[in-house]
Amino acid sequence: MIGEIQLPEIEELIASRNWRALKTTLAEWQPHDVADLLEILNPRDRVILFRLLPKAMATEVFERMEGEAQRELLEAFSDAEAAPILEEMSPDDRTDLLEELPHRVTRRALRLLSPEQRKIAQSLLAYPHDSVGRLMTPDFAKVKKHWLCGQAIKHLRSLALNKETIYYLYVVDDENHLIGVISLRNLVLADPESPLWDVAEDDPISVSAVSDQEEAVKILRRYDLQALPVVDSANHLLGIVTFDDIMDVQAEETTEDMQIMAAIVPTEKPYFETSFSEIFAKRAIWLIILGIAGIFSASVIRFYHSSLPSDLIVGLAFFIPLLMGTGGNAGSQVAALMIRSLATGEIIPKDFLQLAKRELLMGIVLGICLALVGFLIAWIVNRDPLIGITLGLAMVLTIATANFVGLSLPLLFKAVGLDPAFMSGPILTTITDVLGLIIYFNMTHLILRI
Amino acid sequence: MIGEIQLPEIEELIASRNWRALKTTLAEWQPHDVADLLEILNPRDRVILFRLLPKAMATEVFERMEGEAQRELLEAFSDAEAAPILEEMSPDDRTDLLEELPHRVTRRALRLLSPEQRKIAQSLLAYPHDSVGRLMTPDFAKVKKHWLCGQAIKHLRSLALNKETIYYLYVVDDENHLIGVISLRNLVLADPESPLWDVAEDDPISVSAVSDQEEAVKILRRYDLQALPVVDSANHLLGIVTFDDIMDVQAEETTEDMQIMAAIVPTEKPYFETSFSEIFAKRAIWLIILGIAGIFSASVIRFYHSSLPSDLIVGLAFFIPLLMGTGGNAGSQVAALMIRSLATGEIIPKDFLQLAKRELLMGIVLGICLALVGFLIAWIVNRDPLIGITLGLAMVLTIATANFVGLSLPLLFKAVGLDPAFMSGPILTTITDVLGLIIYFNMTHLILRI
User: A142-247 — its CATH code?
Assistant: First the structure.
């Protein structure tokens, strides 16, 4: 979102080493935009420009940068420069950074923190990867049940928390159990003299620190909350997760699903931040697995060809791509529908029977349409009605089968706790290919009485 | 999120027509949960239970239900029942409902509204589908530059807006131009006697009412805002869009992308709400188009087979699935990477050259790996090194080509303003299939000197 106009002008200021002008310009920008600018600069200029930022802005800009740029800056910083930034970062963003850094750098970063902040950072890093704990921040407002609304507002003023963490106040008892929540709105609209508990909501919606981040996404979206309190198994209040982090998780989950659906080992890093060799590895492994799986389709053809006259094989070979392609397409369609509906929580594996009934019928009806197309094509390509009929019938069975497989495998994977996205796109297609070929050749034997 | 335990018990209460017990139970639930319950009930019970809800809760529950259930309820309601609910609905949710309803029902609904609310509803419906205007609500707090903070809080109390629309106050001049924004947080933390403008931020980030909803998603996510002011071309403040609607849009966009990537005409409705015939149509059209496109691959084989001895064709046929499969997989991988990076705005069509350099190299390196796999398989299946070499070389070229095509087409589509998601999965595969076959057979002529 850096104005097309601003960028060249900025580069000119950098080229002409006009630091004073840069300083005043950047001070007026949004932290996000400064972060974007710094990311596209070379490391040397990046450090120089970062040092020009007003103290108040520096940490926020740093928080908003991608891990790669953060690491480079951190390594260029003196301890004296790095310490205050790490100290002021909001703990959730800091966890994000620390878990990405090389161990050496992480250790240095932890050493630079105040004992208090170090304790926080270490406790957050202790939560499993992709758990809610990794997302949460311990910066939030706790209040006591017996307070007055006015007291709570005074308390807020005394805390001066950063912006994201103040839209709810959480009511805890003396053992720090979460017993209620108050929205800032209700607090502001209430009479300062009225008891806090009158505007509070009891047994608030919360999420466990060890549950999967997707869980937090579902709850927060479901109840349209700005923040979600995080508790331990005994309902002690540990922290909160905020909607902005949740939106990022939602986007990451989507990227991951799409990569898995395309048979890529998922990576959380943006495309340009992922090294050539890394992307190569994440793609090659699946291509090779699927390639080797290709042996099956080859051997299916080999197995049947011995039993069929080779001119017939040739006649049939024309339509192998068409048949396999269509089977794969139909399977991918239903798999995509299932995977997405599972992701949004609209369907659960329990719905299998209901889905199977519907999608089997769907497969047959689609199959019949495509059978006609297949017959037509066979007729056009070589005027042999028998091969046309063979292809047509094979088409019905193949699509019905592919549809059923594309429905079952994602549900099965979900049911056993694996990512349903695996059973889609290329991986699914490789399976439907083999099934399609087997059906095709058996049809031939059946129809052509061979 | 309806407790597994609660549901049967609720059904029992319904079966035993124990309305009093139901009334007290439901009154304690979260509106979202009640909405979910009503959705799974049959229309008759749904109406009965809805009538049991406390007045204060009814509208919120109604807002949270899916369009289908809302329509059925609305049609069952008397004017006297429907009117207050439609009147109290937050205008953005109401637009969502009205645009889905059959015209007849929409007209009735508009008639039931107060002149004031009708004017609002009609003005919102006037915005193009998928525009920010369709998402926005005109319920928000406007303040004047010269006020004191205390005044603004009093003003808020007098408005008593619904929860989603109060976390920012917007400063307008006498011509209703948007000139500043104040977060509720800063307002609360500020001294009531201090001038409002001291805690305000000038030239706030805003979005145009006619721009695409994806635009609002990008801005709101980028700046971590809870709400975004919506303006017209002359910067007059029209309304706001809130983060909860934005998260829904984000989820819808994802679903749409995944459906298009799987060659399904996208639908915004959840799977179970979409009728059999509708899903059939949305899938059949692409399967047929792609099936007919299959003619090409069939005719490629036909074209070359005439020039090749048929036993050789048979030998080659073994590996057609493997070659086409791998080409399609490689293409789908890179296409998925491009489509997602385009969606998140990480790459733009301008990056083409940079991407092409990287992905062509990637294609060649991947191709070489898979060539070895291919040669190996050819060797295992029929001990003919020549066919193995042919397949291997064809593999390198096919994967490099597929990789390049999978990179170029999404970028091209984006550049000309089409949805890049089209150029992926099945559609892309159909293209790479034909290319793969042509390469394969030409290789044969080259290597086997035929």
Answer: 3.10.580.10
How far apart CA B336 and CA A437 sit, in angstroms, is 27
Q: Do B357 and B404 touch, CB atoms closer than 8 A?
A: no
B32 close to A (CB below 8 A): yes
Give me the count of residues in chain A.
450
Q: What is the mean pLDDT of residues A304-329?
A: 80
Contact B297 A429 (CB under 8 A): no
Please give the single-letter amino acid code of residue A117.
Q
Interface test with B, best of A90, A161, A258 (most B CBs within 10 A): A258
Output the CATH code of domain B7-129.
1.25.60.10
Every domain of chain B with CATH number 1.10.357.20 lies at 273-448
- β-pairing verdict for B168-172 and B141-144: parallel
Helices A43-52 and A19-27, axial angle in degrees (round to 10): 70
Determine contact: A340 vs chain B, CB below 8 A: yes
Phi, psi of B257 (to 5 degrees): -55, -45
Q: What is the pLDDT of residues A7-58, one digit of tens each?
A: 778 888 888 888 888 888 888 888 888 998 888 888 888 999 999 998 888 9
A407 neighbors A338 (Cβ within 8 angstroms): yes
**Per the CB < 8 Å rule, is A280 touching B221?**
no
At B256-280, the pLDDT tens digits run: 888 887 777 777 777 777 888 888 8
User: Does B123 contact chain A (CB < 8 Å)?
Assistant: no
Q: What is the 3-state secondary structure (H, E, C) of chain A?
A: CCCCCHHHHHHHHHHCCCHHHHHHHHHCCCHHHHHHHHHHCCHHHHHHHHHHCCHHHHHHHHHHCCHHHHHHHHHHCCHHHHHHHHHHCCHHHHHHHHHHCCHHHHHHHHHHCCHHHHHHHHHHHCCCCCEHHHCCECCCEEEECCCEHHHHHHHHHHHCCCHHHCCEEEEECCCCEEEEEEEHHHHHHCCCCCEHHHHCEECCCCEECCCEHHHHHHHHHHCCCCEEEEECCCCEEEEEEEHHHHHHHHHHHHHHHHHHHCCCCCCCCCHHHCCHHHHHHHHHHHHHHHHHHHHHHHHHHHHHHCCCCHHHHHHHHCCHHHHHHHHHHHHHHHHHHHHHHHHCCCCCHHHHHHHHHHHHHHHHHHHHHHHHHHHHHHHHHCCCHHHHHHHHHHHHHHHHHHHHHHHHHHHHHHHCCCCHHHCCHHHHHHHHHHHHHHHHHHHHHHHCCC
CATH 3.40.50.720 holds for A273-448: no
A370 CB neighbours in chain B (<8 A) are: 287-288, 291
Cβ(B171)–Cβ(B200) below 8 Å? yes
* Residues on chain A touching B187 (C-beta within 8 angstroms): 188
Contacts of A268 (CB under 8 A, 6+ apart): A252, A255, A256
Residues of chain B with CATH 3.10.580.10: 142-247
Query: Quick one: A404 exposed, middle or buried, by C-beta within 10 A (0-12, 13-18, 19+)?
Result: buried
Helices B310-317 + B385-415 axis angle, to 10: 60
pTM exceeds 0.90, yes or no: no
Residues of chain A with CATH 1.25.60.10: 7-129
Residue located via tokens 């589908």: B129
Contacts of A311 in chain B (CB under 8 A): 310
pLDDT digits (tens, 9 = 90+) for B148-204: 998 998 888 888 666 556 788 999 999 999 999 998 888 888 888 999 999 898 889
| Alpha-carbon gap, residue B318 to B213, rounded angstroms | 49
Could you tell me if B390 lies within 8 Å of chain A, comparing CB atoms? no
Nearest by Cα to B162 from B102, B225, B98, B242: B242
Shortest CA distance to B149 belongs to which of B111, B191, B89?
A: B191
